[in-house]
Input
Amino acid sequence: MQHLHVRLLRAERGLVELALPYGDKVTQQQDGFHGGAMGALADIAGGYAGLTMAPEGMEVVTVEYKINFLNSYQGGEIRAIGRVVKAGKRVIVTTAEVDHIDADGKVSPCAVMQQTLAPVPKTY
Output
């Protein structure tokens, strides 16, 4: 995510917030934020929120996510807040909300996601 200039805004147990600035690497043909960029940001926010609840020595991998795209915007940035819904031994369920923040600070919803993560042994 460094390539896309994603910033970590907040990290606490069960919650992670990330920001992705507008740019030509994350837009679609109509110059709005691309759904793939929104999905990646939501996946990572939810994944890292899940990681904060994973057992010691474990990582998480995404098993599945379902995302609803609500709107695409130009300029500003998008932010994703990932939250843990339930953290179990074998499955962690998260949600993420993706919002657009324009130059004036106006917040508008872009996407909502539900995700299933699996804890796996950390191998590095």
